[in-house]
């Protein structure tokens, strides 16, 4: 299999179809496209949990590990509480680099007032670069959780900020020397600084308070992957105007340089939402200084259509993230 997400057919057949044991306390479990699980702990409250590894980069890995997990919890409408970290390290790593990763992780936690609650740290021959796997824990009121599967026919589809910003920042950092032979230093530095936009906690909070029906953090597989996963989870079709999908010029030019597709590039920092009145949510987000656009609608049936003025084509199931073509 190719590096990246396991293909959806394989995931269903060999992973999800093997899970049979159920507990009544589990309110939201494993499913295509869902970022979190939820467990009832009291009459009116539940714990919300997520898990994710950071494998595509080693630069700023401590910060990214926390940010991605907080984004997953935010996409479920949950308040983040803490994380547990499994840190796997190669033999060649120095204590200084290990300390730096943990300092990054703690600084990221401090920004959103969450705690590193525990975990496991190990040096192992199984990895050739640092790998951090994070379990995130948050809380939400019962009945208030937002799922990826909440989109319904006729709802507006919203994208916040810009697609590809995480992948652009990673490429600008990992391939800085190479990019500086083609782009100006100011251009590359601006692309590197895209990591300042990776939190989706602010837009998730606003959207939850203004009637959002579904949210999905746009991560591996890019916006095409996120659109497919929300449509699959919600059992709806899509009509998406490609011209409205927000993308920064830096992302376009760096993707052109590496001959990769920005619409299939890892995009943490961008949130995909579905809502009955998408324009009202966009207005509220814009008031808070968060760029957002209604890009299309959910439809009856299973046709998932991308269109421009010149063409219409069908969205395909998620592929391996474009980042892995450049950084591996």
From TrEMBL:
Keywords: Kinase, Transferase. One of its GO terms (biological process) is protein maturation. Residues 152-303 form the PurM-like C-terminal domain. GO terms for molecular function: kinase activity. It holds the Pfam family AIRS. CDD domains: PurM-like1 (cd06061). Belongs to the HypE family. This is Selenide, water dikinase. It comes from Eubacterium plexicaudatum ASF492.
């Amino acid at each position: 299999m190719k590096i990246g997400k396991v293909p959806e057919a394989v995931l269903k057949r060999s992973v999800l179809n093997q899970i049979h044991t159920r507990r009544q306390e589990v309110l939201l479990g494993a499913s295509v496209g869902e970022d979190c699980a939820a467990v009832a702990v009291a009459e009116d409250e539940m714990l919300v949990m997520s898990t994710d590894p950071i494998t595509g980069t080693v630069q700023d890995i401590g910060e990214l590990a926390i940010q991605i997990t907080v984004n997953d919890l935010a996409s479920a409408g949950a308040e983040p509480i803490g994380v547990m970290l499994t840190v796997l390290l190669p033999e060649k790593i120095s204590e200084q680099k290990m300390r730096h990763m943990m300092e990054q992780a703690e600084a990221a936690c401090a920004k959103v007032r969450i705690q590193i609650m525990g975990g496991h740290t190990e040096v192992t021959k199984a990895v050739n670069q640092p790998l951090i796997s994070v379990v995130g824990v948050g809380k939400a009121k019962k009945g208030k959780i937002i799922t990826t599967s909440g989109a319904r026919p006729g709802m507006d589809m919203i994208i916040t900020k810009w697609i590809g910003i995480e992948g652009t920042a990673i490429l600008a950092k990992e391939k800085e020397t190479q990019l500086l032979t083609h782009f100006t230093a100011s251009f590359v530095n601006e692309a590197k600084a895209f990591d300042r936009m990776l939190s989706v906690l602010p837009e998730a909070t606003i959207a939850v308070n203004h009637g959002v029906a579904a949210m999905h953090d746009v991560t591996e597989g890019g916006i095409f992957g996120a659109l497919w996963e929300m449509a699959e989870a919600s059992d709806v079709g899509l009509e998406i105007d490609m011209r409205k999908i927000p993308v920064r010029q830096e992302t376009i030019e760096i993707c052109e340089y590496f001959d990769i597709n920005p619409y299939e590039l890892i995009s943490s920092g961008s949130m995909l939402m579905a809502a009955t009145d998408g324009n009202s949510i966009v207005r509220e987000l814009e008031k808070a200084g968060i760029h957002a656009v209604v890009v299309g609608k959910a439809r009856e049936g299973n046709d998932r259509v991308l269109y421009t003025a010149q063409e219409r084509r069908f969205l395909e199931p998620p592929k391996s993230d474009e980042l892995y073509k450049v950084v591996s």
